[in-house]
Design goal:
Largest sheet: 7 strands, antiparallel
Number of helices: 9
Strand order of the largest sheet: 5-4-1-2-3-7-6
Radius of gyration: 21 Å
Low-confidence stretches: 379-426
Number of strands: 13
Mean pLDDT: 83
């Protein structure tokens, strides 16, 4: 299935309404150019410490060391010991905003480079028997995939599915066929309906002989502070279960609702189809597991269609005509906390896959200090020629390096040929 389950959408819609006051505070802080005013001192402290770690990891010159010292000094004066305290104001806020802004700009050169690395670990969930897609998933450790519970609900569903990596458009506009890796729930499968998450083992070699190691993985970093409210989020996805698409900075993190304390809300138009996609910060660390869109509604609570009508569930059960106005994802810090309990229980019970869950947690712990980004072992090229949809020749030196200059604000949507591009989907 490529549509959101109705129950998931209804629950997300209720939480979206409940977070209205929080969203308004975030939006107002953006309009007033006071980005820190929407956050608590505790979250500002966590974000600044995370940023300090990333600056230290990326520092290759005196400027990086200078920023580290300034961040450390700013942290010393923040004073986050009082729960519920007001965020810093006046001179303290001005110093924090300036130093944080410089640090973020210092790291911005990594944006495009990290995007390319992150995208390779995201794939389309397909039926092994038909080859039809019905969701998105991403590798979170060597041989382990994460997606939504409503995409893979049980061992039986996982045993009949594969993950198709590199089902996308190439740089020369070729339509790649991708590489299908069988899912192996007999080695590991765990699902949690409340968090709408599933993890499953993946075969080490694809059906056409490509190693899974070539696609890397995206660590689940359990510490908080990977993003601030009001900052952009980025999503790599297979909307409508089609070819891979990327949405850059077209959505803002607007709320972390206290209700159940496990979801994040971010704005943006949506379409069903990419349930199970990773949601990233601008440093391309996974901050959430995307699981639902939020539909536009009338005052009486009826869902609205893209043409302004009232959605009819009997004629459109997959909600393809619904107008989506926002998104909801499951916070990574909550997913990691849950997996810690899973690993302990599996170890006690001798359940298959305990070692793989421990590996997921170990990868995340290691990535706390670096972000977990490593250069890919080499470009994975298609093993068989595919039909070109453009007349441009393939560049003879595929390994050469290119340099581009972009503004800090970047809005890009990489669309597929068989469906129109659109902002943020699931």
């Amino acid at each position: 299935q490529s549509a959101y389950p109705r129950a998931v959408v209804d629950a997300a819609s209720l939480r979206w309404k409940a977070s209205d006051a929080e969203r308004k505070t975030v939006i107002q802080s953006q309009h007033e150019a006071r980005p820190l005013s929407a956050e608590t001192p505790q979250r500002i402290d966590a974000y600044t410490r995370r940023l300090l770690t990333m600056v230290d990891a990326a520092s290759a010159n005196g400027q990086g060391r200078k920023l580290s010292r300034e961040l450390e000094t700013a942290l010393e004066g923040l004073g986050t010991g009082t729960p519920g305290a007001a965020p810093p104001t006046g001179a303290t806020a001005a110093i924090l905003e300036r130093v944080i802004g410089e640090a973020e700009e210092f790291l911005s050169v990594m944006f495009i480079k990290r995007a390319l690395v992150a995208a390779r670990s995201v794939g389309r969930i397909v039926s092994t028997s038909t080859g039809e897609g019905f969701g998105t998933g991403f590798l979170i450790a060597p041989g382990v995939l994460m997606t939504n519970h409503h995409v893979l609900q049980n061992n039986f569903a996982a045993s009949r599915a594969s993950v198709q990596l590199r089902y996308e458009l190439e740089i020369d506009s070729r339509q790649t066929t991708g590489h299908c890796f069988t899912l192996e729930p007999q080695r590991l499968f765990h699902a949690n309906e409340h968090l709408d998450m599933s993890i499953v083992a993946v075969a080490p070699v694809s059906e056409d002989g490509v190693s899974l190691e070539d696609f890397g993985h995206l660590p689940l970093i359990g510490v908080e502070g990977k993003i601030r409210k009001g900052q952009p989020v980025n999503i790599v996805q297979h909307p409508l279960a089609g070819r891979k698409q990327v949405v850059f900075r077209e959505s803002l993190l607007t709320a972390l609702p206290p209700d159940n304390d496990h979801v994040a809300h971010y704005t943006g138009d949506t379409q069903p189809g990419s349930s199970g996609a990773p949601v990233f910060s601008d440093l391309w660390e996974v901050i959430a597991l995307h699981h639902s869109g939020v539909p536009d509604q009338t005052e009486s609570g009826h869902y609205v269609t893209v043409d302004g009508g009232i959605w009819n569930p009997s004629t459109d059960p997959e909600m393809k005509t619904v107008k989506w106005i926002a998104n909801e994802g499951i916070r990574v810090s909550r997913l990691v906390a849950h997996l810690k309990t899973v690993a302990d229980r599996m170890s006690r019970d001798g359940t298959p896959g305990a070692d793989l869950v421990e590996e997921v947690l170990a990868v995340g712990r290691d990535a706390v200090h670096t972000g977990g980004f490593q250069m890919p072992p080499g470009n994975v090229r298609e093993r068989t020629p595919t039909r070109s949809i453009a007349s441009a020749p393939v560049a003879p030196n595929v390994g050469q390096t290119a340099s581009i200059t972009i503004p800090l604000r970047l809005d890009i949507s990489v669309g597929a040929s068989d469906s129109p591009p659109f902002s943020n989907s699931s």
